[in-house]
């Protein structure tokens, strides 16, 4: 390839990452809130290193994420943990290194509170029971949600047993997904203010979660107002923990066309990538953005992945130029939830990882090898070529 990339590849553009994290930093400063990064969106080393200088810490969701961030930066950054699964061994391993710990339920908190270090600030995830997402698979506020303590229960508890939350210093909520305006956030902030003011009066901090695409929103007034409800009315320290907003626009998946043949009514182009490299394409059933696609373009194709799954297809795309075997296909806006969810189904290796440095040069960060696949399968006694 002319740019020296072996496909399939994931390319992280460090200049774009700097731009989008700087935007988040500016908005957080304007609102006087703390900015965390959620590594679940993308935990690759160039991303962690790119965001670290601009954020106030990392919002982890598992023991491995905690270890990864901790080791990448030699114990330096502020660490937050929020998860439906918190184990005693995690608390023991991290001890006072864990700065903020959000329990998912009252029962989880009551069972593990004795194992939490005195230096760790304890929070509770609340489910505000106010839904904004139509698809219940992605709605943390769905009926019988596993994510957080229902706000109604907290309101009852604070009335019936005012000391029942002693030891809880903060609240956490995360209720949206890829929202491009902040109306939902403001409605949630008002709702929490109105339903559990007594809880807000006795805590010190609140985390508003992620789920908002700051880069796609033009108007931040509702965001600033939501933060002000907690900061100014209740004097709380406010955190946000975006993931996708920091990295979504900064990554591409690069693929090569390997075969083209006639389908029933459109040509099929087989690529050397698959939806397994971007599983949300299948999960959410959306067509990813492709460089060079033009509505009504002269040459149309069904772009298809290379596995045996019939539904391993990206969609129909049109181009002004004809594709041939060897043509490059670039999937845009692939920075978030691609490499952190990618897998090797069918024995198709993961994309190689490249970093496009701010000066435009490309560095290979990692190449997936057969040995990685074999090791993952527990096959270790293979002769390495
Ligand atoms: C608790 C929590 N915080 C933050 C995030 C990051 O969300 P996003 O990448 O949509 O900003 C998520 C994503 O699922 C989450 O579950």
Describe this structure in words.
This protein has 385 residues and is of the alpha/beta class. It folds into 2 domains: 32-242, Alanine racemase (TIM Barrel); 249-376, Beta Barrel (Lyase, Ornithine Decarboxylase, Chain A, domain 1). Helices cover 28% and strands 21% of the residues. The protein is built from 12 helices and 17 strands. The protein has helices at residues 14-31, 45-51, 63-72, 88-94, 106-112, 151-160, 183-195, 197-201, 221-234, 244-247, 280-284, 370-376; strands at 9-13, 34-35, 58-60, 79-82, 100-103, 121-127, 149-150, 170-172, 205-207, 237-240, 251-262, 267-271, 299-304, 313-319, 328-331, 352-356, 362-366. The strands form 2 sheets. Strands 2, 3, 4, 5, 6, 7, 8, 9 and 10 form a 9-stranded parallel sheet that branches. Strands 1, 11, 12, 13, 14, 15, 16 and 17 form an 8-stranded mixed sheet that branches. Strand 12, helix 11 and strand 13 (299-304) form a beta-alpha-beta unit. It is globular, with a radius of gyration of 23 Å. The model has no long low-confidence stretch (mean pLDDT 96). Bound molecules: pyridoxal-5'-phosphate. Pyridoxal-5'-phosphate is lined by residues 38, 40-41, 59, 82, 174, 177, 209-211, 241-245, 336.
Oligomer: single chain
Question: End-to-end distance, in Å?
Answer: 24 Å
User: In percent, how much strand structure appears in the residues?
Assistant: 15-25%
Structural class: alpha/beta
- Helix/strand order, N-terminal first: EHEHEHEHEHEEHEHHEHEHEEHEEEEEH
The overall number of domains is 2
**Number of strand elements:** 17
The third-level CATH topology of the largest domain is TIM Barrel
Largest sheet: 9 strands, parallel
What's the CATH superfamily of the largest domain, by name?
Alanine racemase
Compute the number of helices.
12
Helix content: 25-40%
Give the overall average pLDDT.
Answer: 96
Q: What is the name of the CATH class of the largest domain?
A: Alpha Beta
The Rg value, from CA coordinates, equals 23 Å
- Which CATH-level-2 architecture of the largest domain? Alpha-Beta Barrel
List the uncertain runs.
none
Taken from the alpha-carbon principal axes, the silhouette is globular
